[in-house]
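ok so i was messing around last nite and threw this chain in just to see what happens. nothing serious, just curious
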Amino acid sequence: MKISIVGTGYVGLVSGTCFSEMGIITSCVDIDEAKIEKLKKGIMPIWEPGLEEMVKRNVEKGRLSFTTSLKESLVDADACFIAVGTPPDEDGSADLQYVLGVAHEIGKHINNYMVVVTKSTVPIGTSEKVRMAVKEEIQKRGVNIEFDVVSNPEFLKEGDAIEDCLHPDRIVVGTDSERAKKIMDRLYKPFVLNGHPIIYMDIPSAELTKYAANAMLATKISFMNDIANFCELVGADINSVRKGIGSDHRIGPYFIYAGMGYGGSCFPKDVKALIRTAEEYNYSLKILKAVDDVNNTQKSTLYRKALKHFNGDLKDKKFAIWGLSFKPNTDDMREAPSLVLIKNLLDAGAKIYAYDPVAMHEAKRIFGNKINYVEDPYFALDDADGMFLVTEWTEFRILNYPKMEKMKNKVIFDGRNIYEPQELRQRGFVYYSIGRK
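result:
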């Protein structure tokens, strides 16, 4: 089989690479010539464990290729996946200009039956817009070429994307065509040999499933952060509460860790987009509005604790920040809590020395020389008034106490609750966490 994937961002590049790993001839398309040239040389635009090696292996075996020509990529393709970005508009709705732009280009160049697959996260009704865009261009050409549109949302977790793609816990496919269903069955057969299902449904349900899944996970996070803030007021410990409710199989232990709020390219955008879509149908998703509000507030929680500790005066204070990406095992800083924390500290006149294992280049792109960057987390502690733990990278879990003696004020603000309060206080640190006594 042969497929084309348009878009070499997180979803497109990971999906295309994993399809090629399963023996499917895959052509990845992007209009960014510089990115395509780098990919041909094995230079990745994103940091994802295992991705670089897998890309190189499949390029060498001739199963994976990169091009800027959609026309070339569509020749003899059984399916074309649209995996371009859907950034939020000012009102929070998903911007579909790139998705529909690709649909029009497909219509201009399609020459045989194929399945057009919307892989991007898109609002309900987008697949029908894609269908009309492709059909419009085919009609302009005066030809009669059949095609089907399928919704196939992705459920990849950044940092675990390769594993999620190769061994999915479910594959959701929305289609109204038996012909398209057979092609999707063939494409995904290698991925479901572990017994996990392909779940077929109507197209609107598939489109909504992606948003509903992310909204549910975001709700769990915001709920726990809200409870964590309440724990501090009543003297309870959120870690104990988490263990108590996580053992209930109806709730489960996942996504119930208190912290600085969720970030990344999916949860914030998708929650806002779902709220906006509901408003277009004159319906208010009140719970999700509260989820979004709690999350926005939570991103400033460590800053508020620091402001209180230093009696409202952070001017000329030096702070170390450990972790910049929105989660470990990625260099993605989109909607990261670190962005809010850094902005608040800079506005207050503080000096920042930051470290992250892989996201430094992205931080430099965002902040330039407004903050200082160090190559070792302990370098940031020299004469520091405090340290903020923002991203729970594994290398931060065990502290090297002798190297921390260089701190001016031994104050730690732990945004992920990874340290033990009693141990730190016994070593002379003032320790702040989230939702713990």
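not much to say yet. The chain has three domains: 2-201, 211-297, 299-432.
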